[in-house]
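Subject line: Sequence and fold of a protein, written as structure tokens
Area: Proteins and the way their chains fold up in space.
Start of record: The labelled sequence and token lines come straight after this line.
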Amino acid sequence: MKLITVLLFALTTATVFANTVKVTSFVLARNSETLAELCGVVEGTLTTPTYVKVAVDPYGRRPGTYNTVAGVDGKFCVVVMTYNGRAEASVFGNKKVSFASLK
């Protein structure tokens, strides 16, 4: 019984901390004032496919949600529309969020 409890704890702990998102760039596209590209990498244990949720202007009047898939190497990019220049990215099922602001 103790072994089962330890294994369940280890399994749930590993899945909670397995995938974290790191935003590597968030920049406006060329001459646009609202179109931007957000890129990042998923670190940790990857499953294929790994889905990434990107929330743009999450606390503004016009929030937007975008979904993308990270590659085998964990890298992803998505083009988004932003009015406030803020975004947050996370792996589906993981509550840990990575924040980004336009540079």
